[in-house]
Write a structure and sequence with these properties.
The chain is α+β, with helices and mostly antiparallel strands and 208 residues long. The chain has two domains: 35 residues; 155 residues, Immunoglobulin-like (Sandwich). The chain is 17% helix and 28% strand. A hairpin with an 8-residue loop joins strand 7 and strand 8. The radius of gyration is 36 Å and the shape is elongated. It starts with a helix and ends with a strand. It binds copper (II) ion.
Length: 208
């Protein structure tokens, strides 16, 4: 081959190589250049869980330790109250009634609240007391109970009688993941008049 022929060959090879290089850039690298950008760093933290809601109820009964005002009838104070939905509810019920009331043994069992546990002689947040799944049936003074309803499967918490002027406190936790009203009642036959009078041994929880 003549020198001119070699030059033509080199020129042809150069053109082919250039075409391959261009097609590599266009078809090979271009898709990489157009790849989805890396996800942007998250700048907002997930919302923290709602803080728990503390509910304090007192039971006054026919006893020497009932804080004023005491109207002579067994009564939860308050009996009607409002709680937030989808929030950990921490109830503390302090009983100032030293009376016991006869109940079937099933009514001395704790159920339907978190862990099936009610903490005895509690004074949260300093002390949660002793966890219990039931109390001796002879010590049931009142209960905080709800029958199964459209909005809840129901629950039962037996309340021990007061054994001194400081009362007897019971703490338990639950969620009410609904909105509307939930009825509760005392299932210990404590005070015939109060048992039939809304706002004394029964009431309404409004969940918002
Ligand atoms: Cu009662």
């Amino acid at each position: 081959m003549s020198v001119r022929g070699w030059n033509h060959l080199f020129a042809d090879v150069f053109v082919v190589a250039l075409a391959i290089a261009i097609s590599y850039v266009v078809w090979g690298l271009a898709p990489h250049a157009a790849a989805a950008p890396a996800p942007a760093p998250t700048t907002t933290a997930p919302a923290p869980p709602a803080p728990p809601d503390y509910i304090y109820l007192a039971i006054k009964g026919g006893c020497a330790w009932c804080a004023a005002p005491f109207n002579g009838s067994d009564q939860y104070t308050p009996a009607n109250f409002t709680v937030p939905s989808h929030t950990l509810l921490i109830f503390t019920i302090t009983n100032y009634d030293n009376g016991q009331n006869p109940v079937p043994s099933a009514v001395a069992q704790v159920f339907g609240v978190l862990g099936g546990i009610a903490y005895q002689n509690a004074a949260p947040p300093a002390s949660w007391g002793t966890p219990a799944t039931s109390i001796p049936v002879a010590n049931v003074s009142h209960t905080f109970s709800a029958l199964p309803q459209k909005t809840t499967a129901g629950w039962n918490v037996p309340i021990h009688e007061a054994d001194g002027p400081q009362g007897y406190s019971v703490t338990f936790e639950m969620y009410l993941n609904t909105t509307g009203t939930v009825a509760w009642q005392c299932d210990a036959p404590c005070d015939g008049w109060s048992m039939g009078e809304p706002g004394f041994m029964s009431g309404t929880i409004t969940v918002t």
